[in-house]
Hints:
With 235 residues, the protein is of the alpha/beta class. The chain has ten helices and six strands; from the N terminus they run E-H-H-H-H-H-E-H-E-H-H-E-H-E-E-H. Helix 4 packs parallel to helix 6 and helix 8 (159-168) crosses helix 9.
Amino acid sequence: MKQYKHLIFDLDDTLLDFQDNERNSLKVIFKKYNIPFDEKSFNQYKSINRGFWSQIEQGTIEKEAALTKRFEEFFALYGYDVKGEIVEKEYQNCLTKGHKTIPKAMETLMELKNRGYKIFAGTNGIGKTQKQRLKDSKMVYLFDDIFISEEMGVEKPNSKFFEIIFNKYDFMKKEDTLMIGDSLASDIKGSNNFGIDCVWFNPLEKKSNDIKPTYEISDISQLLSMLNKETSLAV
């Protein structure tokens, strides 16, 4: 294995439990608008949301437009004509309150930090929301820097996302940097596009497609044995 010094972590569903946060936040939103929260309505929203995020990652729609249109399209299924930007703001306020972490994520980060790795967050998300969640989870103190797509003006898998990080820290080299994330479409594809190694965090052990990671793990703590002390040259 290569000797890595710098680790870039995705946040949602890699370190922070976004699935739990999303479900709880949607419960609040649905209740406010008298929409039943059940598997049918939840899956309807998820399907619409996935479609818009796919467009964001492909660069065919602006993120701000997608995040508002997803709610307009969903609420239309129930006969509501809503202003998407208002519902989106309400939703983000709910998300901000959720900071449940992925099992063993905190312990893994702490150990990697103790070993001397430089640790960065690289997330497709909303700045205010992600920063508050990291602060509340106490993870924020473990990162050397945090990069959020809204503030950067570019989303993974665009190579420019990684270029911004490398331009800020010119001591980073592609051969000693590793990206860790759960999304093939953004984290792994983005790493491949930029030319750095990557770890696919795949707890559900899904089948991969034509996007190939360098490594694959199903438990975030497996990073510790993969990046053992003997192979680390972190400074």
